[in-house]
Amino acid sequence: MFVAHPVEQCGGFVLVLVDAGNAHHEPCLVQRSDVVTHAEKRPAGRWTGGAAFGVQRAAAERAADRSSGQRGVDQFPAGNERSLRFHGHLPWQCWSGLSPGSHPAGPLVEYPGIFQRPAIDPFDHVVAAFWLQHYRVGRHGDDLLLLACSASGRQGHSGWYACYIHPMYMNFWYPVAACSEVTNEAPLTVRILSLDFVAFRDSAGNPHVLSDTCIHRGGSLGQGKVRGDCVQCPYHGWQFSGEGRCVLIPTLGADETPPARAKVDSYPVQEQYGILFAFLGDLPASERPPIFEIPEYTAADWRANKLKVFEVDYHYERSIENALDPAHNEFVHPKQGTPGMLLDFRKNPIQMDPIGEWGSGFLIPFTQKTPEGGLLAQANSWSTEVVRAGSGHFGPNAVVTWLKFTKENMFHQYFYEAPIDENRTRIFFVNMRHFLMDPAMDDRIVNINMEIAQEDINLLVRLNPVRTPETMTREVLMPADRPTVRYREFLKDWEKRGWRLDMKKMREMRGDVAMAIPCPARRTEKNWVLDEVPRVGR
Length: 538
Hints:
Elements: E1 2-4, E2 14-18, E3 49-56, H1 59-68, E4 86-87, E5 108-111, E6 125-132, E7 144-151, E8 159-164, E9 172-178, E10 188-192, E11 195-201, E12 207-211, E13 225-227, E14 230-232, E15 239-241, E16 246-248, E17 266-267, E18 269-272, E19 275-280, E20 303-304, E21 308-312, H2 316-323, H3 329-332, E22 353-354, E23 359-367, H4 375-379, E24 386-394, E25 398-404, E26 410-421, E27 424-433, H5 442-460, H6 482-496, H7 503-509, E28 515-516, E29 531-532
């Protein structure tokens, strides 16, 4: 995902350039962006894409537009209306030695690669030209996307900002969709790990997840149809079974067997906890990490809230590390405990215990002040009793939070996270409770949980840098950060196994080469059409 921040709010067009050479040197302005008065005025150079986004305008300018009947949206060429979502703030790292200009309160926008035209009020926004070009600058082994912003109008000036490309890992189970979303009526396209997948059910109701790219001419299978036990490509009608094999090529006729090379990657799937999971990797069944288990899910004395799915605009590692952080609750979530006063729980040593082979967690005691009301008061009426709370991760993308108010009253909260791309994450939330069993409490508890989640979101979208630093020396870590450190140690181990995707090479290849996460069948079958995604160290 590419993210751009307009340096100034003003009327007129904003031109954003992404420098894309292969030179390993200090960044410099390689394409001067002059004032752009017409969106059709495309700068010279090898530009790979265009998009439109809006910039908030002053109230007087909006009023003038209304009176004159001008519509900013109509000024942008229809062919380039691949537009972007609007966000609150995302953090930026200003590159030292350059002139970033001011950091305004304007809207942030993204270029995610999945294009949807948003509903833009033409009188509240002006349309801006946005061109992208691939670029790489070496800095501590990270890829940086450099963005230059120039704005027309009295207040316009230029600035540079940098954004990291984030690591992601194959050979783990990832949540694809809620089970109810996957049907035999139409295929579902889902983006995970910056790649597209298609999910569908066959005539018997069995779910399947395939690579989304047709190996004939590159059509998106997710745009096609479900035909019996197959998904049909919308481009030339090729049909692929749930095992990924092409079973019909219309131009050959129904009696002709498609060539063995006509196949796409098909991934192992499981349905658990209302979620369709896919194993995105090539490990044989005996070597795969399992799905993070919810042992109490079917227990009669526990209740599961309805599955909640939501998206956030930050990298999943930040999300996981936040859940593993025992020291932020009283400051970020003051309504859930004693706001920033009782810190004794932080003085207790944190003992990290393994969660199988693939994760670790902790439980720590702390003294809780008597709640004054609400759900916590119903869970606990003590004044000095010790509460136990903690969290743990399993793999790179699953985390649990344990809240044990008493032996009888407990919350267990499970989060299964799917990195959509480098800066967006889709979260599947399963809340388990051992009290307040009345189904009428479900909505109230979900609302409270989402209020708490929003408090985290408001903080995490402003963290700087956007992703966790590559080395521990970039932060001043405390004993309470031991869970985060242990999580990062796991990530390093999985990188050494060759499971980390090489996002730098993926960016270089994208647009020229179709890629897929290798499926288990690649271990035994040869002659695949799509390239395997590049991996660090391989």
